[in-house]
């Protein structure tokens, strides 16, 4: 399999750097081909602006969506954007690796998403009608590929629990899981999260490596998060709200995930 790691940490000697090197080694030893987009090492341009569409009409105001659409369709995108899109198309699986900064990804990774996810590539694709609303949320250019977040956090795991002060980690990561990854079609695996990174001794680091290795070894057999596909009947179109019979009484992030129902034991 082909695996792309999009890595966002400014210090190669960090915990993230060590985990990234370990992931490359583990995946390579298992026979997978690995590419890494090390955004800080690449000096990645994080700002989406008119320079990303060099052939645009410079007499007109810059329109991020429409100029992105024209640049992608006409093959006039900046070379760094086109190169990352090629990597995404090459990959069977993508790992986004980053430290959790201010409850989200670092700005450089957000900028990678904004620039690489061009109109016509990651969004704005498919039929828009009263029957379908584009190929997204389970469909799209990147459908059939797998994705996982590898995230480090300074806080304790309990801080990110259901009653923790920071809020549940699944809720914090939902915009990335559902919006950044599921939207263009990825099958999104549960995240691999390392907590309390400031208290990482050798024994805990060894245990973390072992746990990460197991996740990488089972990457293609792990069940993805059961997000509800947009065009499979769960949502009213074009309102794009859940039908009344779907998850009645439920709202918020959890309503958009199919909950497993335990089978009741049958008695004679």
UniProtKB/TrEMBL annotation:
The entry's cellular-component GO terms read: cytosol
Keyword tags:
Oxidoreductase
Gene3D superfamilies (alphabetical): 3.40.50.360
The catalytic activity of this protein is classed by the Enzyme Commission as: 1.6.5.2
- Extract the InterPro entries matched here: Flavodoxin_fold, Flavoprotein-like_sf, NAD(P)H_dehydrogenase_qn
**Family statement drawn from the similarity comment of this UniProt entry:** Belongs to the NAD(P)H dehydrogenase (quinone) family.
What is the protein named? Answer: Glutathione-regulated potassium-efflux system ancillary protein KefF
Q: Which gene encodes it?
A: kefF_2
